[in-house]
Specification:
The structure is a homodimer. With about 150 residues, the first copy, chain A, is mostly beta strands. Chain A is built from two helices and twelve strands. In chain A, the strands form three sheets. In chain A, strands 4-5-6-12-7-10 form a six-stranded antiparallel beta sheet, with no helix packed on it. Chain A has a three-stranded antiparallel beta sheet with strand order 9-8-11, covered by helices on one side. The radius of gyration of chain A is 16 Å and the shape is globular. The interface between A and B is large, with 46 and 46 residues.
């Protein structure tokens, strides 16, 4: 695919010639109310840049993998889990997901949460937590509350 | 350098633990009123993500190289040259600079122009135009006006 030099931002966080896609295939990993837009996917670039939007109350998949993520929040607010810690995020905050680190984004602030995510074009498939992984994550009360979708106080 | 999971956006387009750097070494390629912030530079990521801000009336270097750029405008307005065409840009517009393509960003709209730029971590050095290159570029009146810093009508 040839990318045109300019693709305009047309309606909030939607662009010319950029399709709004399902976040993942249905029936696989658990997620809720997430869309995906691939902004840049070019053979000359070693990374892709995607825009994800999580609707109010929604969340991305809790997963980990060998590849890293570089995230720039663009819209709305929410929280994210990185490893064993939960962080509130708002526009322009920078989130770094290192390799082999459990992570999840939640739009748990009554508004959507939209973010850019840079990722290596060549990457491994995500791994989902098993029961033992979940038990270890939930040992931290703040993480358990996050995973249960409890609205932060 | 270890990147912390969360680095907050503190003042407009400035971040915790992110230095505001000179755009390039002084005395080399021509530019004006540009700052550079490296938001993500991680061994596990094949690209870097930088934030550039061009002050009102300023411009980046007119250059080309083998590597590509993926740009997301974040702040202000201005114009950019990509190849032989000039484009007005505003927040969230997407600009793709293909390999071997002359390009320049100008904050020529009386306001700053700030943008994210994704680029391969491993990349060649930029090439500056010689007199023949400039003559070819300036053959297009709109490009000549852009390079002369003329405010668009």
């Amino acid at each position: 695919m040839t990318t045109r030099p300019l693709r305009r931002h047309v309606t909030p966080l939607r662009w010319q010639e950029v399709d709004v896609l399902a976040y993942k295939e249905e029936g696989g990993a658990p997620f809720r109310a997430v869309s995906r837009q691939v902004l840049f996917d070019d053979a000359a670039l070693a990374c892709q840049l995607r825009y994800f939007e999580v609707g109010p109350g929604g969340h991305t998949t809790l997963e980990r993998h060998e590849h890293a993520h570089a995230v720039v929040i663009q819209h709305g607010a929410g929280r994210c889990l990185v490893g064993a810690a939960v962080y509130r995020v708002q526009p322009y905050d920078l989130v770094h997901i290192p390799p082999r680190t459990w992570h999840q984004f939640r739009a748990d602030d009554g508004q959507p949460l939209g973010f850019l995510c840079m990722v290596n074009a060549q990457r491994d498939r995500p791994q989902l937590p098993d029961a033992a992984d979940l038990a270890r994550l939930r040992a931290e009360p703040g993480v358990a509350a996050f995973l249960d979708g409890e609205t932060p106080s």
